[in-house]
Amino acid sequence: MREFQIGIIGVGTVAATHVKAVAALPSVHIRAVCDIKGRNEISVPEGAAYYQDYQEMLGAERLDAVHICLPHYLHMPVMKAVAEHGIPVLCEKPVGMNFSEVQEMASYSEKYGVPIAVCMQNRWNNTFQALKAAVSGGEHGRLIGLKAVALWSRDAAYYQKAPWRGDMRYAGGGCLINQAVHTLDQIIQIGGDVASVEGVVTNVLDYDIDVEDSSVSNVVFRNGARALIIASNAHVVNSTIEIEAVTEKSIFTIKDFKLYRAPASDPLDKTLVVEDELMPGSKSYYGAGHVHLINDFYSYLSGSDVPFVTVEDAGRVIGLIDLIRKSSREGRRTEWEELYGEC
Description:
The chain is 34% helix and 24% strand. The chain is α/β, with parallel strands linked by helices. The longest helix has 20 residues, at 311-330. It starts with a strand and ends with a helix. 45% of the residues are buried.
């Protein structure tokens, strides 16, 4: 891997995970960080320059890549600015606030001639990679259905601390686009192309927010399989994500960071397949995916033929979320083709 001097824009909660991941890569060095907060309010990596204006940072520093770790509404303008400077981008989730934004953002890579990757790091989890390989391999028969359950806890103080999180104009949504977006992305990766969606978004808690805290939806894929997706921030704790894939011959379950397989004829006869690698600390539920994703990103920039998640690919889950919201708003089934008529 060649040497990299990088920048990070947005030095909040998730940026700390990026800093730790980069620290494990001796060839990648954090040259500059940018945040609107004062220097004494954030943690600036040793040796890194500090800026409060990202345009000033982009103009003053010679950077080989920039990580965008900002609130959702800033992803699009900052991604464009970084790409305009000819600098490769690694953007945190969600890639955009809606599918229309994603369609615009997907043009930046070709327009400005730089790779743009998105942090959908749960695709790098051991359990998910093993599940996807098992379902797509064909030995377990046709995929029949999927189930995903993402139940987390977010109290009123979570939204009060950062009011943008509860404001549709700045967040683009609630539990679906913020907490459950990785789980929905995994469901699409396994299920394939979406045909139609019926869903409900709602609020079951009395917080003063205009984004959803809960959702239930039914997704039908073009291959005939369907998925039940349940997401909520109204639980009292952060439960581990549960994903179940039912095939003709087997039932696979991800729960508690472990993947199990049972024969379809005896769902209780579960056998452990593989476990996830976890990061220590209070954000252990992030998993170790960031480390592997960031390593692969810089391996790609160094010339290795390794995959990364493009804006267009990451945008598929944003399209699914848009369809769930539209189905709930209009009280009907929505079709994937409707997305392109609104862009």
